[in-house]
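Hi F.,

I've been meaning to write this up properly since the lab meeting, where we talked about keeping a consistent format for the predictions we share between groups. The idea is simple: the sequence comes first, exactly as it goes in, then the structure tokens exactly as they come out, then a line or two of notes. No screenshots and no reformatting. I'm using this chain as the first example so we have something concrete to point to.
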Amino acid sequence: MKKERERYWLDCAKAIRPELFCGEVEESEVPDFLLRGAGACLGVELTQYSRPVLPGEAIAEEQSGLKDKVLRLAKAHFTAKSQSLLRVGVVFAPGAVLRKQRLPVMAEQIAGYLLTHLDGKPDWTHVRWSLDDDETDSPPEEIAAVYGRVIPSIGNTHWYPADAGWVFNVGSDEVTRIVGKKEPNVPQYRVRCDTVSLLIVFEARPQLASSIHAPSEPIDFRVQTSFDAVYCLEPTDRRLVVIPTEPPVT
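Output, unedited:
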């Protein structure tokens, strides 16, 4: 599966800038792919961007997955007991850290509230359940608010985290950090190819609470590296960014 994903990324890069990735593709390991052309061989190493995690900090991608999971569980609880069609949005409390062992309890509480207030109600009936309410039955501490609405069409029965999230483009420090992680392997890559490129992949998925993108263009920095070329790829937006490079200082 990993190799299939890497091949998909390489094919995206080739489709966007075919002149930069010429030759017949051959799967490899060190580097990930070899592109054999007329009298030359280009090595391509791929790496997916990941944000550094500080000590004690929750991993954003993991937290996003847990938010999705608690909503799937809540929806399953609700639909097992009700025929009503709902659109549900959940705003998680700022700074709240979700734990796997808490998900079943949270899901049951969300489903229980919606069953009590929306089961069998007319279309477009809606509720808002929040920590600010005076009700004795408050939402789980990890949740700031739950929004639910009865809708007439099954095509709109979305249950989703309603957090606004955050979006940003990485800069020179982050690109340099990622390149630096692969830099010690360049001599090994060169054993099998004439030139070697690094392709950094940014898969910004809309369902995640965070969305990290490749650098904004025009690029106003250079990266010191032994790679012959460094690129940043956004497959979803079909965007390939060429990072200016220069040889490392010896």
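Notes:
The first helix runs from residue 2 to 16.
The longest strand covers residues 41-48.

If this format works for you, I'll send the rest the same way.

G.
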